[in-house]
Each structure stands twice: as structure tokens, then as C-alpha cells.
Amino acid sequence: MASLAQHIKKSKKNNPTITKKVDGLNVPLAADEYEALIKEWAEVTYKKEIARTVKSKGGKHPNYAEFRREAYGSIGDQLDMQYKDAVNGTTTWLDHIATVKAKYKKP
Amino acid sequence: MALTLITSKTAPGDADSGALVFTNGSDSVVLDSTYKEYQFHFVNLHPANNAVAISFQVDTASNTSYNQAIASSFFRTKHHEDGSAQEIAYVASYDQKPADQAFQLLCNDLGNANDESVSGLFTLYDPSNGTHVKHFTSRMSEVHESDIMMDSFCAGYVDTGTALTTIKFKFDSGNIDTGTIYMYGVS
Lengths: 107, 187
Fold this sequence. Notes:
Chain A is mainly α. Chain A has 5 helices and 4 strands.
């Protein structure tokens, strides 16, 4: 996973120029304004990468409920698992739910 | 119903610190009681950064901090370009309660490859109403950074009885590289 510094570097590469409107004209941001906005943007992409990494590999994250909901699968698929468990005496659905809960932990 | 084109803004030429801003009385913008409904048509907004979301906030004449209280919900459908998966899901991390006072996200992890963009329709109702909250609805079609077609639905209201005078659209990270927003009044 890229560091915040790497995200800042990438954001500068993607946004070499940022302009603002002054009296209807496009004017490049002052150096300090440019650095502040680049940092703000990089922090957004950095936080998103953290979320994506947790979603992929598991861990604690404020969005854990959203990650779990997606990983549980559709209600239809879960009902199918429960039906097969009932017929076959297996615990596929329980194991699946436990695995998802273990992967995405509440912070 | 009749649509009247009020103005349009195109990035990068009309961008202001990475945003396209529509302020009543500025650049031919009308955002007052002239119309009870305003539509913003997003056409191929392409981001400079990858995995970003188009977003909006509003302001009143007496506040220029873009931190109005918003109550909203967000859900989306998706279909992978390779046909491998389809899904409909509520996205709790994209909704807002009034205390959040953040820019409202309208799509999800848009890619910045040359052929990727977001287009859609954002509607703002009765922004100059001095009593009621200001409702909005949004539907966006985008190319997710992982080559997924996403159809995002967001709706809610700006939780203020004060008239709105400006609306700002921006990606949550990076410049709007290219693209146009057309502003219409509905009568």
C-alpha cells in the first residue's frame, strides 16, 4: 500500500496545475494553496486505499458493516446455503457468516 | 415541463480550485426563485485522479464555507464489464446525517483512464424557499476504476430553511480534467 507521501507525489503528477478564478480570470494557485489542496486530495485517496486494502485482506475499519454486507452475499444465496445445510446436516451458512465476521472486525 | 438552458461550465477552463461553481448572479447563473426546480446535466466528467467521486455542497448568501447540513441516502447497482457479477447495494459510508456537513458524494470510485468518466442528472428543488428544506435527487452512470458499470442513486435534502445561492461540484480528490455541467431551469 502506498504511503501518504506517495499519494501526494502521485496527486502532484496528476494535477500539475490547479487554477482559481480571480475577477473572472484563471490564475494558478499560490504555492502554499497548491500544496494544501494537493495534501487534502492525497489524504482522500490514501484513506480510500486503506479501505480497499481492508476490504481485500480483512481487518478493522469503520466501514466494516458495509464490507460484511457485501461479503455475506445475496439473501437468495444465503437461503440456498441454509436449505442445503438443513438437507445435508452441514454448517456451510454458519461457517460462511463466521468467516465474514472474523475477516471484517468492528474497530 | 420546459427546460431553459441557463448556462454551462466546462473543465478545465471554468474550474475554480478543481471545482465547477454555480453562484446566483455570477457568470450568467440564475439560482433563485425564477425556477422551482433546477437540473444539472453532467456530461463526461473525467477526473485527474483515480478512484474518485463527484460531489456537491451548497451555500447561502451569509455562509461561504460549503458545510451545510445534509440528510441523504445512497444506493447503487453495478455490473462488471466482464459479466462476472451484478449487485444492488445500499452504501452506508456514502450517506449523510445533518451533523456531517460534508460534501455529498454522488458516485463511487470513478476511474481516470482515458475512456472513463461519469455522466448523469442532478436536480435541486426550490433552492430559494425560505421555509422548507431543499430537496435534491441524483442519478449517475460511471465507469468504476475496476471496469464496472455503476448506476448510483442519491437523494436527500439540505437541512436549512434559508435560501441557497450557490452550488459547488467537485471530485473528492483532484481536478476535473475535462467535462461539462449544463444548468437548466425547469418551468
